Amino acid sequence: MPDHREFLRSVELLGTLLPAELDQFSEALISTEFQPGQLILEEGQPNRALHLVREGRIRVTRKVDERELILCDLSAGRTFGELSILDEGTASATLRAVPRTVILSLSSGDLHKLLEDSPATAAKFWRALALDLRRRLLHTNDVVRTYFEVNRALIENPTFREAYAMVSQ
What we know:
Number of strands: 8
Structural class: alpha+beta
Shape: elongated
Strand content: 25-35%
Distance between the termini: 52 Å
Order of helices and strands: HHEEEEEEHEEHHH
Helix content: 40-55%
Radius of gyration: 19 Å
């Protein structure tokens, strides 16, 4: 079984855990390799795990009006599936490997068992998750603000609206 402790220490979500706590996480992880272009998770499908990008890069997309919109790329050390471990929901986006990619996954059941067994670990984990989700929400607020400003410029400025129409065709 590979030792993932050093890698786990570099993952922001797990960075505050002690070596013994990282060992527990490491023991519960399942490693899966994906080839370029291979589907990792599909929007709308159930996800019952926390995932960590160990190697490679993942393209995150969503369908909007039957078009695939690229949201971002996730590289080594990034996590996904956090919301699904909170409410056993579905994937909010589609994820595909860009180059060969290795994902480490911890099932929701294993995660909850691990955290139930150690309240101190649970407190650190849930706090780190809350801070990560806060960071993402603030980023999303900035993106929405930018779109709002562009929309307002399109409405209020005919010259900008014409120029925008020319470049968006």
